[in-house]
Amino acid sequence: MFDEQGRRTGRVFARPYALSYGDDGAAELDGRTLRSAVRAALAHFHWKRRSPDRIASCAFWHGLIGLDKERRPLTPIYTWADARCRWDAERLRTELRESTILQRTGCMLRFVYWPAKLRWLRRRDRALFRRVRFWVSPADWVLHELFAKLATSESMASGTGLFNQQSRSWDQELCDVVGINPDQLPPIRDHIGGGKVLTCIGDGAASNLGCGATTKNIAAVNLGTSAAIRVAIDRLFRVPSGLFRYIINGNRFVFGGAMSNAGNVQAWCRRELRIPKSSRIDRQRAATDSLLALPFFAAERSPDWTEIPASIFGARLATTGAEVYRATTTSALYRLASIFDLLEQSVGRIDRIIVSGGMTKSPDILAILADALGRNLEIASESEASLRGAALHALEGNGSVLVGAKRGRKVRCNKTLTRKHRARRDKQQRFLRMVSAAD
Question: pTM of the full predicted structure?
Answer without folding.
Answer: 0.94
